[in-house]
Amino acid sequence: MTASGIGYVAAVVVAAVFAVAGATKLRDPAGTARDFEALGLPRARVLAVFVPVAELSVVALLLIVPAAGAIGALVTLAFFTTFLVGRLRAGVVAPCACFGSARRDPLSVVEIVRNLGLMVLSAVALATDRPVRPSLVDLAVVLVPVGVAALAIGAVRRHRRGSAATASDHRGTSR
């Protein structure tokens, strides 16, 4: 087990998340622009192209120069998280648009928690300055907690959807 190996695994995990986020936004820029507008972002059409290109640039850095990519990811995530907290405080419930128009869940604290977890992983990625071959222990140290966190976030989302559907059903039958 090495700090560098753990750091690189963390960098690859963050890179994977940023890659999916960037690619899904680029796949449907018009949908991404609509979602950005719903969140109250100015110049949503421009940002619908700029944000995923920036995310994909962070991916390249994370994979090639992990520490530089980690700094880019931390700055990006800090900005996104601060923006999302502001939107939540303003009562906005539009979809997050974090993964383009692929996800339609209303904005919630789940996105904040996910971003904080990604920030922790980005900080861990600062432990390596170059790509390294991680050991199985390095992989386990990062991937086991990431898997548990992903399952927990998925369970919370499913519970929220179920609660929303139940509330909707009760509203529809209480006439």
Number of domains: 1
Average of pLDDT: 89
- Per DSSP, what share of the residues sits in E-state strands of 2 or more residues? under 5%
User: Which secondary-structure class do the elements indicate?
Assistant: mainly alpha
The secondary-structure element order is HHHHEHH
- Largest sheet, described in full? none
Distance between termini? 62 Å
Q: Number of helical runs?
A: 6
Number of strands: 1
Backbone CA Rg: 18 Å
Low-pLDDT parts are none
Instruction: Classify the helix fraction into a percent range.
Output: over 70%
Q: Characterize the overall form.
A: globular
What's a quick, concise take on this entry?
The protein has 175 residues and is mainly α. It is 77% helix and 2% strand.
What does this structure look like?
It is built from six helices and one strand, in the order H-H-H-H-E-H-H. It is mostly helical and 175 residues long. The protein has one domain. The model has no long low-confidence stretch (mean pLDDT 89).
